[in-house]
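Final paragraph of the annual report: two paired records, presented back to back.
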Amino acid sequence: MLFIDQIFKDSPNPTYIKDSQGKIVWANTAYALLHRSSLPQLLENGAVEFDFSYERDLEILASDEVASIEEFYKLDDRNGTWFLSIKKAIVQPNGERFLLSSSSEITDLKETIQIAEDSFATKEKFIHDVNRELEAPVNAIISLVRLLKKTFINKDQKRYLNSVLSISDHILDIPKDVLEYDRVEAGVLELTTEVVSIVHFIREIITVLNLKAAEHDVSIHFSEPLTRIPDVEVNPVYLNLILSKMIRCAIRYTKSKEIGVSVFQEEKGDNLVYLQFSIHNLELGQSAEFLAKFFESDFVPNSEERYKMGGLDLGIYTSKRLIDLQGGSVWLKEESERGMSIEFILPFSINDRKTAPPREEASEPDLSDALKLLLVEDNESSQTLVKHQIQNWNTKIDIAGNGEEGIRLATEKAYDLILMDVEMPGLDGFKATSLIRDSNGPNRETPIIAFTTNAAGHEVEKFREAGFTDYLRKPYHAFDLYLCISKNTGHYEKERLLAEKRGTEQEMPLYDFSGLGNMAEDEVFIRKMQKLFIDIVPGQLLKLSQAIQQQEWETVALLSHSLKSTFGNIKVTRAANAMKEIEAVVNKGTDYSALPSLLEIVKSTTDKVVNIFVKELSQNQ
């Protein structure tokens, strides 16, 4: 060991050598001090008091790989020190194996990274706050414009309204695109992957985008490939972002009424396939020169250019960066017959196993068999609000402008639910409800909901005595209205049972560490991951549940995004998919009915994973 002694004896980097049995046969002073021991005592014992690296060192001894591991040590002053340890097996001519380990302190680096992550988290919260402030007024503008488009207007007016819709979408995109841009530039990337059929994946995106395209008098046509493309492993967040931004870019800049989207297999290896995506039939005109700049390989916007780029264009640049980071390429192509096209190639790992059929998105509620509602409300603004809130809920609604008209409709037709304003001139909601209950009409047993501005304790009892089934206090959120309708029509329980049935039918592995790469083979690291999961995830779920109950949607959005990544990293697929849907529902902000059943899926899946992890950790102690 003479040459080792000469090299490492006085080095500040803790260094040691172990034999094939894991006994320390040589160490330097830095290593002894790190373990609060004298060097002679350490070498005499051949071990330190708490050697957390023992099992892992034996594994490295048996392999020929070089291991690079981050290790944390607590010091006497309760502070901690991080080291990056390089470990490698050394084989002597006689076949005897030794392990050489040398560590370098990286505490400053880790603290710098933590500061950067904290700074990004602060910026992320600020951008979420800005987005929340923008959403309400801009969505109100969008709703009004859509109502105006249904009236009798000329072509010029329709074009102006389409421009307003485009600008409104653009405003809503800006905070999200800034956030995605900062994530990519800061290296804060999602690791979640799932196996998909590319054709189904693209088809679902185009279905959503066609609604946006129609507002610009543009249609999207998807040409499905003639030959089958194998199922591949994708990062759904980033592929969705790339495809959506590129197609929306085409919608914004093209002068043609129809654009085409296609995908085909460019090249295939043993476990890898290169797919080329094409968005074509674009009449770009002068915009072609502007867009070409984004697709130049060396284009990096400076701070002034980022300010000028705006939301959608910044999204295009972010998409290009994501393509580059995944080993792909993107370019603008001129075609003689189909105008210009946006082309990009991406590599994907082949995972051609049988996958479950594509899930239906939970973004829109589905009150099956069209609920028949009667709204008795004298205020026109309140009538418009209710109609707007339930317009996508698969309902049929009749409106009565006063109590007398409400009584007449209730005697002529059976309803699933009656929404009754309490404070109406003339025949108020109390008298109208009593008359319905005392009649022999079709709605004698129908649930009747009281709309009221006063819901004190004595008033609630008064509602029950008058025959009301439930009440809803004004002003209320769409979430409250939907839950009230669901609860009093039995639809809430039906949704829960359907969710449980879907969960039973789509059995899949509870978790999978293979997405962690080489670290999946590190048993010590995996045990730490399991311990962290047990310590952190149930507490975060409790906070998420409380935030949903208290309708703190900003907190729900942040927690669901964080938990989605946590579940995705170890492929707890059912929980990750449910968290993805929760995040989508909250970000859209129009339908919260699916949240209870989705949260139940996450909780039950988490309980199963925690139970398994606890059992495995106890067996390894």
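The closing record of the year follows.
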Amino acid sequence: MNEQTTVAVVPAMMALTGISKNYDGVAALTGVDLTIRSGEVHALLGENGAGKSTLMGVASGAVVPDAGSITIGDQTYDRLTPAQAGELRIAIVHQHPALMPDMTVGENIRVAVPAEVLRRDGDTETTMRAMLADVGCAAHLDDRVESLGIAQKHLLELAKALVVEPSLLILDEPTAPLGPDSVDLLFDRVRAAAAAGAAVVYITHRLAEVRALADRVTVLRDGTVRGGAATADISDDELLALIVGRKLESTFPAKLSDAEAGEPVLAVDGLSGRGFHDVSFTARRGEIIGISGIVGNGQSALLRALAGLEPFTGTVQVGGSAYGPKRLRHRCGYLPADRHREGLMMSLSVRENAALSALRLFTRGPLLDARAEAEAVAGQLRSLAVKTPSQQTMISALSGGNQQKVVLARALLSAPAILVADEPTQGVDVGARSEIYRILREIAAEGVPVVVASSDAKELEGLCDRVVVMSRGAVVQTVEGDAITEQALIHAAVRATGHRREEVAARPGSTPLRRFLLGDYAPVVILALVMLGLGAYVYSTNDRYLSAFNITSVMTSCAALGFIALGQTIALLVGGIDLSVGPLAGFMVVVGSFFLNDGKSGPVMLLGLLLMLLTGAGTGAVNGTLIRYARFTPVAATLATYIALQGLSFLLRDSPGGNIGTAVTGVVTEQVGPVPLSFVLLVVVALALEVALRRTRAGMRLRAVGSNEESARRVAVKVTGTVIGAYICCSVLVFLGSLVLLAQLGIGDPAQGVGYTLSSITAVILGGTSLLGGRGTFIGTLLGAGLIVQVLNATVFLELSQTWQYFFQGALVVVAAVAYSRVRGADPIAKG
């Protein structure tokens, strides 16, 4: 079918015209035109850094173009936002899934998929389970995403895209982490989407996938369109020439013959660990060993053990010398499958990431030879053809394939005794792939054992001299020499795992106990038990501990701290922190001391309360604005307001003054029996906030921003508005705490309130909220505040000095941090 006929018959879903985009003066796209037609699968090809993902970011609203237009139907846009893209039913499956790791599978779906779509077939949870099953994702809705393997994360991302029945479906390297069964299922879903009239853009580096799926193909190189045609009208050689701008030699370097292979350099005998058992194989000098099998059968676990990252039994000998986990950890060059989670430090530069494992080679005495480091990194980057504006460029600015090449560069620079690579060419273009294969062969020829795990059987066939096929963590077959074929490897894996697919589909992603321990409520149970134990012990030594007076005193103190800590929780959930909460509480008490006095009229008192509330909301807005628009870090922004508020407090009152009226203190300290109503209100507010955090889209968006800001932006969360709103809500809760503090103090004292900053952070940490954002619970914070007050109160009854108060608080924080991190430590190998 020629171009004119295609245009006449198939309507255009989207037309991208003259799209240009620059990053720091470097052109990512230059005048790109692309027409995407309904009912077609349009393959988008190009080397890493060619501009494919950037162009699709423009199409999906994630990237703002510098020039050009986007036409959809009869409407033309200068740019799209993620929210607009969602309304237009444009769905994208990113090369790196737009998921929030601290949230569960179900919460990730809810925050990304419109509620009306999830209710389309009735019950929301039934719809979510069905959409996961439709793509073969075995994850449980209550599994935390960070505990999933990379393949399951991609399937979850695919499920989110397909459930909206998109008019445009964009797939960016969707098969990179998937096994054969999942790839076949994906292809079926892509064909079904196109048959239903959707336009599909398919980004890949695998020409076989283009032949299997695509109706049309367009090639980008250096940010410009180099050509395009109907798939049937262009050959693979022509496509390769367009992609790399030159004719490629053979993809795979020549293998060694038996006569050329040298002495044994690697012997693995009876290796067992988490996820694999009794694995044995050998490698001779010059050989590359492949690890094959259906994804999730222990391959990644085995490679982590060979890299010294997991304990094992059995023996590993390299060059005739025994290597245990510690020695392997220092001498192994390791390329993980999930480069973002395990392979890269995203806040560091390209040079820093590449040189990190080899710094010992560049030291001269106690100092680092920066010139030697830069020269070594430059040479390695050139050999791998890494596209980066400079060595100082942040690694996060590079394309996925170039990031992968930096991980390889780091492994090579460290002069490893053994090289272990898990999916080494994942997301890498065809030109760089052949370079990686050549380098791996050269490393093996130098006597360094090379072990490669790959879900691409064709890759293992062309690269490896011996392939170990695994199923359920055990070796089921070893294939050597000419017997290594794609068909033989797939047949060995499928024959050994014939029933695995049904078992995985029926089995939950984890046990209920495991999900609970990884969840947010495990700390709540731990805190409750600690508080009960401490209370029982103190009561056993002094029965006045449960007197009405002491209960009232403890609950009142807990109310003041509790409200402020609840506000701090919101700031931490969004990935920030608010150091100003203590001075803000004190400042609002000082403001109130001018209005809430005996003899003042009701309207004057109401004005004072309103001014206190506006002061809080205004401070929150200032904090949020400094963070989002002035680009202050949360610590810097809130430290600035901390200092300003403390100064203003002393400016208004240089000494304590302004007695609070008895009518005001009477209302705040009102009791039902020994229980203050302020404490009852604290519990009600905490419960309401907890429900909102778990059950409303606003609550889930708050956690989404704290968990992964970029992913949240991609799923149309308004990040800036969410952060500013969070800080305003934080300060409003501090206002409630200041009312209780005001009644406790009975006077405007500019020196009071400051200590609540540290106490609120301590309470939040004890409650299990992460300092990194994205996860936590208001119930935990409530109990954390209660435990702090209880400890202070207990030291009085136990007749301990103030020193012990601080000691116990510090000890509680340390124990809680260690316990929570150990309990929540996700298993990095369970997924593969």
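Residues 123 and 690 are 23 Å apart (CA to CA). This concludes the annual technical report; the extension proposal builds directly on these records.
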